[in-house]
Amino acid sequence: xxxxxxxxxxxxxxxxxxxxxxxxxxxxxxxxxxxxxxxxxxxxxxxxxxxxxxxxxxxxxxxxxxxxxxxxxxxxxxxxxxxxxxxxxxxxxxxxxxxxxxxxxxxxxxxxxxxxxxxxxxxxxxxxxxxxxxxxxxxxxxxxxxxxxxxxxxxxxxxxxxxxxxxxxxxxxxxxxxxxxxxxxxxxxxxxxxxxxxxxxxxxxxxxxxxxxxxxxxxxxxxxxxxxxxxxxxxxxxxxxxxxxxxxxxxxxxxxxxxxxxxxxxxxxxxxxxxx
Length: 276
Ligand code: NAD
Ligand code: 0WE
Fold this sequence. Notes:
This protein is α/β, with parallel strands linked by helices. The chain has helices at 28-38, 50-62, 76-90, 112-115, 118-141, 166-185, 211-221, 230-241, 267-274, and strands at residues 16-20, 42-47, 68-70, 93-98, 143-153, 191-197, 252-255. The two termini are 23 Å apart.
């Protein structure tokens, strides 16, 4: 990651919102949270279970937040409690960040057609796509007009990435949901967008079988000849969640060093990526 400088400003002054999906300091949601906090946003966080509470609590405290909710997105009671907490504390909110994805490990390897089970498909789509619809609806009920929501997606929704498998299908559903949510909430001036990030070394990207190859290949084939910096993702989120993003909605914005735009990598870069 580039030098972690979050210049302070007032782009998010007076705005309050919920960040879902911080697991540790490497989480994309955490880079976004710091960027928003540096611009004056007031934040609340959800975490998934007691094991992650210990990690998220000090991070939240470091940006002046003491509002943390245990929230597994498959648990309706925890979702109810999370949004009730926000309503009780703030009345209204201005933004939502959704940075949550999961598929069973057995679903993320080998043949898509052979290995994708009904339960694996259901659970991946439930946690990784439906949860944005559900959280988005709940957020919209307590959102000021002029609010904004952002989710995180990946190119595997548009093109085949080896082993991404059912997660690619879930991300396609997530991006389509983003467009339908944008249409429904547009009349209230609530904007809904997705950021399609290139591969970033987080917990969710750890333990990918082909991880080393993927980061090397992405670096070689990207227009920037470099991997994706989470700071760029955080900057895009700031744009989309602040008034800088006015009139932008239903969009899937790529922050991937231009990887998505390339049809064929430069020969020398590709060769270098295949060596070693
Ligand atoms: P991360 O592991 O830091 O974050 C993933 C989060 O999902 C964790 O906080 C985890 O607790 C949460 N989560 C999983 N199942 C959940 C459930 N049932 N209920 C509540 N929370 C649950 O990894 P990350 O890379 O920061 O991932 C954040 C988002 O970014 C994901 O949507 C991911 O698909 C997306 N993304 C990641 C990359 C990458 O290469 N890292 C690239 C593009 C998009
Ligand atoms: O969206 C993701 C990963 C999300 C994810 C990660 C895990 C790891 C642990 C979802 N479910 C699980 N389940 C687990 O058990 N990314 C964009 C990162 C990622 O994951 C890949 C990638 C990339 C990029 C998996 C295979 C190929 C490429």
